[in-house]
Amino acid sequence: MAETQGEIKYLIFLGCAIPYRVSAYELSTRKVMEKLGVKLEEMPEFNCCGVPMDPISHEMMLLLAARNLCMAERKGLNIMALCPGCTGALKKVNTMLKNDKNLREEINKHLKEDGLEFKGTIDVKHLIQVLNEDVGLEKIKTLVKKPLKGIKVAEHNGCHVLRPKEYMGFDDPEDPKILKTLIEVTGAECLDYMDESQCCGAPVAGVNDRIPLQLTKEKLAHIRDVGAQALITICPFCHMMFDTNQIRIERMFNEKFGIPTLHYPQLLGLALGMPPEELGFRELRVKPTELLKQLGFQGS
Amino acid sequence: MNEQDKSGQEKMGKQIIKASELDPKFKYEITQMHGGEKLLMCFQCGTCTSDCPVARYSDSYRPRQLIRMTQLGLKERILKSETLWLCAACFTCTDRCPQGVKVADVIRILKNLAIKEGYVPPVFKELASSILDNGYAYRIPELRIKKREQIGLPPLPKGNPESLAKILHGIELKKLLEKRGE
Ligand code: SF4
Ligand code: SF4
Q1: Whose CA is closest to atom 1 on ligand 2?
Q2: How much is the pLDDT for A3?
């Protein structure tokens, strides 16, 4: 809708977790998008997408998401979100408000308190959707300078980029393909493993720390068992579970995993010919030393 | 295995149900809310529980049981229960329910009602107050913000607390987050 011909331009929606703890995801995304010719503009104003408040008050979640959508409408630009949680909330609320006149009127009553109105003129996409639908695999392929041949990885989509189907719908949650295809474009091989689409447990971490660590541990074991050299994620929360918490999990369960976890744009960036230092590799807790060595990068 | 889970199990499933505990109107309260419409369609097949990642590692968290208890109107027992808060909102149950019950939405509705009754897990207070103060769910340290510049990232978009206060005026968040109950 709000797209000028030829040029791909988005408002980048960072969410809260990325600036708080996961800068490498943002950094690598910006670098990669620049290489691919996608223009990114900043949100004029920001507030939390609403997801963390949904358990407290559904209405508050709706209002927080709607306010962000209004900001984007003012700019006349579609939103590209990096966090699946944000993507889910913004997409869902956008669709709900576009389709349900009564709800729209109700929400607009509140928004009016600050002179805002939801009109329904923009769309929301996740990073992998922009890469797949707007940039396109063909274009990415032509820009791959350093195919990651011989590298074997596994993927973890994260729940909210796929579910609920009713609102996300751009990939099959029972057998997701887009991230896999995007990984294969880099030249790396993407391995299947058991219970691939299972949740990492991150959302429960605020009330219970045992269950999420067990879920993540189970996934790490499946990933190790198929011989993946790295795990590729597209969610800041999943990334914290697999990378930040991996050493804690190893200690807790007395098992060794040593699986470096990369943000997808970090992997893509390497294939586009960028050095690891530019892509925030230093921030990773589980160091991908072997992997980088295999690709001819020293040190780091 | 885990204390939190054990007490949850006692509270939830292993007690005799007394007729006086049942609120027959409770289910209609839920079916009127967005996402709760199909509650009465549940035929207890158990798909939600068997596919729930949390149920896999919890001794007490069982979405199918929560749905049945909601149909029966065991309102107090559900709203007081700590296990309610274990749902990861992963939506696997919603996507797989053969009857179209939006299980995760029903559980979200139950959480919203629990909050109204005054059962508030502490983590939500922190998140909410941070959002109201600066727009972000977390308080991002100065150091992080400075570091952005050093690694070549643009300044973070600002929050607008005045605007948020106006828009959220009707929700009475402060009142919601007061801990009552117990
Ligand atoms: S999957 Fe649906 S029908 Fe089956 S028990 Fe769960 S809510 Fe009920
Ligand atoms: S949404 Fe909640 S109840 Fe449903 S499968 Fe996920 S954790 Fe279990």
Answers
A1: B89
A2: 47
Contact A23 B158 (CB under 8 A): no
Ligand 1: which of B48, B51, B54 to mutate, judged by most atoms within 8 Å of the beta carbon? B48
Helix (H, G, I), strand (E, B) or coil at B38: coil
How does pLDDT run across A272-293, given as a tens digit for each residue?
Answer: 999 999 999 999 999 999 999 9
Mean pLDDT of A72-89: 98
Please report which confidence band the pLDDT of residue B176 belongs to, taking 50, 70 and 90 as the band edges: confident
Q: What is the pLDDT of residue B3?
A: 43
* Shortest-distance Cα residue to atom 5 of ligand 2: B52
Mean pLDDT of B99-110: 98
Q: Of A54, A163, A204, which has the smallest distance from its Cβ to B86's Cβ?
A: A204
In a domain, B134, yes or no: yes
B63 Cα nearest atom in ligand 2: 3
* pLDDT tens column, B46-64: 999 999 999 999 999 999 9
Strand order in the sheet with A189-190: A189-190, A152-156, A230-233, A261-263
Do the Cβ atoms of A55 and B2 come within 8 Å? no
8 Å CB contact of A199 and B90? yes
In angstroms, the CA B4 to CA A208 distance is 9
Query: Which residue is closest to A112 within chain B, CA to CA?
Result: B167
Enter the CATH code of domain A2-127: 1.20.1050.140
B16, part of any domain: no
Residue B41 lies in domain: 21-117
Q: If we measure between CA atoms, which residue out of A82, A89, A90, A64 comes closest to residue B130?
A: A64
Per CATH, which fold does A138-294 belong to? Answer: Rossmann fold (3.40.50)
In angstroms, what separates the C-alpha of B165 from chain A's closest C-alpha?
9
Q: How far apart are the first and last CA of chain B?
A: 24
C-alpha B33: how far from chain center: 15
What percent of chain A is modeled with pLDDT above 70?
A: 98
